[in-house]
Amino acid sequence: MTDYWLSKLFFDLQNPAAAAEYRADREKVLARYPLAPEVLDAIARDDVVFLGGRVNAYLLRYYFGASGMSDAVFLEKLHKTGKEASHG
User: What b/e sequence results for 55-70 when a residue is b if at least 16 CB atoms lie within 10 Å of its CB, and e otherwise?
Assistant: First the structure.
């Protein structure tokens, strides 16, 4: 199931200024979005698989890149569970 607000957050972070603000103060940016507690927890844990089930795969990959995660680490986290991210 797609999560509108999570998708909106990830979409908004495509703006370089928004991504820089997010890296500087995640809590301030996250407070602007009505995200469920389990989603906030997954963001804090960089839970690629959990979040992948809730957003478009392209937004998911962009988000983790914008938040500072390398592609290698992203793919390792994705494949560690033996699951692929859904295409929400």
Answer: bbeebbbbbbebbebe
